[in-house]
Amino acid sequence: MNIKWDAGKYTADFSFVHRYGSGVIELIDADQGSSVLDLGCGNGALTKALQDRGYLAKGLDASADLLEIARENYPDIEFLHGDATDFVLSKPVDVVFSNAVFHWIDAQRQPDMLRCVHDALKPSGQFVFEFGGHGNNRLIHSALDSVFAQYGYRYEMPFYFPTIGEYAALLESAGFRVVYAVLFDRPTELKGENGLKDWINMFVKTPFSVVETDSTKASMIEEAVEMLRRDLYREGKWYADYVRIRMKAIRL
Ligand code: BEZ
Fold it and tell me: 233 C-alpha to center of ligand 1: Å?
């Protein structure tokens, strides 16, 4: 994962991540009592939604801080500490589910993650997921790219946003049959007058590691936000230009 989470702030100010995730759950076609792994479960909000649907849900996440919140909020759910690209379950599950996680994993590590998912599923098990697809946050990253160049830095894109074709090929190579795939725009309202600035501070961390001072970083973010105001600020609200890739694949 390319981030160290600020777990409390993430849970308080970015809850839309989980709200939107409930649509992905609809793609699961499994009986009550089926076992489901929520891969990259974060604070456990969607693991709980899976449990509420009658599944035997458990979560796995690499962030100890987010898992602490998950265990506190949902003490009757099992949460495992682990890396999505290097985990083994004690027993295979019927479904692996994931929301808003895979864009954090570098392209080179995706095959490792898909191998772990394949091995975690029973034969014919379902793999249902959504994350940032090709073109996700294109305006935001292009504004940051310009501002970095203006300040004499190179903007290293920290996310993986594949096309359907690219990701379907990876799934097929990893032993899955793709049965559903869609790429769609989802402009997403951000919270408050500083919504976009807060979003950049929360999620775009590694590119700023080359910037010498906090005040330079703050100025760069201010400039990027002003560049984006025309496109992403409407009627007193900030919106992020999200694009989602949503897929379902069956383990062969
Ligand atoms: C996303 O959910 O698409 C996303 C969130 C934060 C940073 C990058 C992508």
Answer: 18
State pLDDT tens for residues 157-175: 999 999 999 999 999 999 9
Residue to mutate, 99, 136, 141, 157, ligand 1, most ligand atoms under 8 Å from C-beta: 136
d(CA 93, CA 34): 8
Task: State which ligand 1 atom lies nearest to the alpha carbon of 132.
Answer: 3
b/e 167-179 (16+ beta carbons within 10 angstroms → b)? bbeebeebbbebe
Lookup: tokens for 43: 């604070």
What is the rounded distance in angstroms from the CA atom of residue 103 to the CA atom of residue 100?
7
Question: Which one has a higher pLDDT value, 87 or 21?
Answer: 87
- Residue 28 CA to ligand 1 center (angstroms) comes to 22
Give residues (CB < 6 A) around ligand 1.
Answer: 100, 103, 132, 136, 159, 203, 242
pLDDT digits (tens, 9 = 90+) for 61-115: 999 999 999 999 999 999 999 999 999 999 999 999 999 999 999 999 999 999 9
Domains of the chain: 7-137+159-190+241-251 (3.40.50.150)
Dihedral sign (CA 107, 110, 111, 112):
positive
Strands (E), 105-161: 121-132
